[in-house]
């Protein structure tokens, strides 16, 4: 495959050689007729000048010599009757210091015969192309000056041929020099022009490998540089699009993972209560229980049904949060007032519970319904796993960028190897509690999803007497309240 540089060099060379061949061909074909036409026009001008001198009666050899030197032609004033040269630019003739009785004139070694021409006849007047004594053609103008004399102006045609040959050689010489010099310049310029193209080629090769890190650095506003800027824009767009596609694929993978996990977890969580409901229902249907025990069976069925309903609601909420399909509705929330409202509701349900609250007034930008669900889950977790009748401590601490709300209770501590796992769906430290129907195993996972949707984080620490769950919310959005 030829490079662009080579193509430009050989194209330039072909164009120059073609121009040279065309120039030489046109020169060979047209220069001679053109020169003859120009000489004829010049001969007429000389004729006019000599005729003007003849009318004043002043024609000398010196005059003809000057005109000959100026125009590069031979001029003779000839006797029309005898053919003798009277005046000649070559200095010979009857009036030029040397007789010419033979009726022949000389011009730079060329010899022309006038005695073979009937100069007395007007028929020979005008342009002619006779041959010299050497057999070479000459361009001749014979013009009468008066009834007895005629002006003869001539030049050998071979001089034109030599001029054509010399001009052609000069054209070839100059053309070859221009070809060599121009070829070097074109080769160098082509290299400069090809350099950004090679850079674009390298960039597009890497783009084909989905590597969009390479960038074209424009150095002007010409077409190549604008192309490079467009390729940069295409690279950015492709990178963004592919990044979006990868994100979408990752989300789809997560959706599929959540779906599979959902099916497996729901199947497991529903197995026990459904089996219990089925067994109790069959026992009631076939009167396998005493009338005294029927109420307990009905209460158990209702309780398990409520538990499954709560499980379904929790699963739906968790899936929406994980798939980002449950948008937050942030609003100003004054934390101390919020805790007072939540604890008042729980106090009504759990009148024997005691709460120790440490709070300083602070406002956050949050979804109040979501925070209420978080507090309900943390408090329910403290009821379930905390020591009976022990107080629940709630403390709010404000730092530069966050507020931290901690819920502490006495009771069993969490093993170090499970402090991260407890935030996963359906995880329980004590599997026996699952079998007893205590909770759904989704509360902490829901809390984690809601707090992270607020830009915060959750955590747990073991204390000397139990555990302390906490969550942090950023204050950055609250600054504009």
In words, what does this structure look like?
The protein is an alpha+beta fold and 481 residues long. It is rod-shaped. The strands form four sheets. The protein has a five-stranded antiparallel sheet. A five-stranded mixed sheet has the order 9-11-12-14-13, covered by helices on one side. The protein has a two-stranded antiparallel sheet with strand order 3-4. It is built from nine helices and 14 strands. The two termini are 69 Å apart. The longest helix has 63 residues, at 223-285. α3 packs parallel to α4 (223-285) and α5 (291-322) packs parallel to α9 (443-453). Among the domains are: 4-162, Beta-Lactamase (2-Layer Sandwich), CATH 3.30.450; 328-480, Heat Shock Protein 90 (2-Layer Sandwich), CATH 3.30.565.10. β3 and β4 (110-113) form a beta hairpin. The protein has helices at residues 4-55, 61-71, 157-208, 223-285, 291-322, 335-349, 368-385, 431-435, 443-453, and strands at 74-79, 85-88, 104-107, 110-113, 126-128, 138-146, 149-156, 331-334, 355-358, 363-366, 392-398, 402-410, 457-462, 466-474.
Brief write-up:
With about 475 residues, the chain is of the alpha+beta class. It contains 9 helices and 14 strands. Among the domains are: about 5-160, Beta-Lactamase; about 330-480, Heat Shock Protein 90.
Features:
5-stranded antiparallel β-sheet, rod-shaped, alpha+beta, Heat Shock Protein 90, 5-stranded mixed β-sheet, 481 residues, Beta-Lactamase, single chain
